Amino acid sequence: MNKLNPSEILLIEDSESFAAMLCEQLMQFGYRPLWRRNTDTLLEDLRDNPGITALICDVFLEEGSIGPLLERKKAAAGGSVLPPTIFISGHLDFMTRLQAARAGAVAFFPKPLDIGALVDCLERLIRPTTATPYDILVVDDDHAVAQYHASLLNHAGMTTRVLSDPTRVYDALLEREPDLLVLDMHMPVCSGVELAAVIRQDPRFVGLPIVFLSADHNIERRIGALSFGADDFLVKPIDPDFFVSSVSVRASRYREMRSQISQDSLTGLLNHTSIKRQLDIEIVRAQRSGRPVSFALLDLDHFKRVNDTFGHPVGDEVIRSLSRLLGQRLRQTDIAGRYGGEEFAVILPDTPLQDAGRLMDQLRLAFRQIVQHPVGKTFHSSLSCGIASFPAVPANHLISFADKALYESKRLGRDRVTLIGEKPAGTG
Ligand SMILES: Nc1nc2c(ncn2[C@@H]2O[C@H](COP(=O)(O)OP(=O)(O)OP(=O)(O)O)[C@@H](O)[C@H]2O)c(=O)[nH]1
Fold first, then answer.
1. How many CA atoms lie within 13 A of 354 on its CB side?
2. Which atom belonging to ligand 1 lies closest to the Cα atom of 303?
3. Which of 208, 235, 262 is the last residue of a domain?
């Protein structure tokens, strides 16, 4: 979900003030809440708002317990299925939880609400469960053969790119790293083994699975290929099912390994190394397309004070609240990462500086609204941001200039966004 496609949430809560607070918080995370005091119009609301993806209901309303009320509604609608329902309540006893479970709760949150945990739960419910298909690059100088193998993989639900010119492989990898590379062994310009050696020279592709597909039965050459960095050597003609499962098993393991390595454990965002790597990729893409790419650095303000006042675990929660907000507010093509302790980086492809500035300013304002630490003494945090854009700023200066802009935001009093339009004169 992103801000262009906000999910609607139906909130059934009889306390107006609590509902207003919760709606405000949900909006900060990019949801569109619809509030009702009771279940009177539930079926009409669901019919008229097909975009409603989840219900949040207080277990007890003035008119009684929500469980039997929902049951009656479902019966009235011929037993139709309600969207996943999260229950909330100020009562924490076992019987209340049991009521919620009997009413079909997918989750139960006590009041006062931990909004962050609630949003995490909504995200799990709403996020599409279908993973993106494995992306395979097939390289074979015989285009028809490459197409045949690609079509087997497409049939099994994978996406493929086909290349008959091995000299273009490296560019294709930079453009979009696949989950696996299928290589022919004998090609006119260079052999598959040589091509694998070229790819392995780049530390970014050291782990990329390479599977050779060749009619070569010579055992020494096959061993040679494996020792030069191939992961498997499949001999043609190959059983289609065996080919597909060999590819998908390796692609799946690689993807799992990559996500473990590339993610920051606290936030689930890309870590420092991965975000820098993504920036390189986006710059290459921008150089090709002639479109701008903006790079933003965000830093929490006076964060030491938060840790000192409320403790490290609460500080961690603040960090997580910003990562959630980034997940909510950015477009699917934008890329966010945790750059350092309380510092985040965002890559905005196809985005000129001024647009990036507006977007980050909206994010800054939304972050300020989030009620932090709602189970204790509440407070609000703010962030400072610096943005630079390529090509106005040369690629090798993009990060340092975003950092200078961030420093300027801090210097001017924090809680602001500063843009650096171009590389200032005399900076080398
Ligand atoms: N809770 C928590 N704190 C962290 C983490 N990483 C860094 N920090 C803390 O973040 C604080 C950053 O402090 P400073 O660099 O002095 O910056 P600041 O207090 O945010 O002040 P300004 O950036 O100037 O507004 C330090 O106290 C770090 O210990 C983390 O993962 N969790």
1. 0
2. 20
3. 262
> For residues 298 and 384, is the Cβ–Cβ distance under 8 A?
yes
Nearest CA to ligand 1 atom 16: 304
DSSP 301: T
Domain assignment of residue 181, yes or no: yes
Residue 225 lies in a domain: yes
Bond from prior residue into 112 cis (ω within 30 degrees of 0) = yes
**219/240 same-domain check:** yes
Q: Whose CA is nearest to atom 30 of ligand 1?
A: 341
Could you say which of 234, 262, 290 is where a domain stops?
A: 262
Closest C-alpha residue for ligand 1 atom 32: 316
Number of domains in the chain: 3
CATH code (residue 291): 3.30.70.270
In a domain, 426, yes or no: no
User: Do 248 and 327 fall into the same domain?
Assistant: no
307 CA: nearest ligand 1 atom = 1
* Tokens of residue 405, six digits: 């802009």
Which ipTM was obtained for this model? 0.94
Phi, psi for residue 47 in degrees, rounded to 5: -70, -45
Q: Write down the residue that tokens 């393991």 correspond to.
A: 253
> Could you list the residue range(s) of the whole structural domain that residue 330 is in?
272-420
The alpha carbon of 274 and the centre of ligand 1 are apart by a number of angstroms equal to: 21
Atom index in ligand 1 nearest the CA of residue 414 equals: 25
Cα(88)–Cα(380) distance, integer angstroms: 23
Determine contact, residues 292/350, Cβ cutoff 8 Å: yes
What's the pLDDT tens digit per position in 231-274? 888 988 889 999 999 999 999 889 878 877 888 878 889 999 89
What pLDDT, in 10s, does the model give residues 41-97? 988 898 899 889 999 999 888 878 888 888 887 777 776 678 899 999 998 899 888
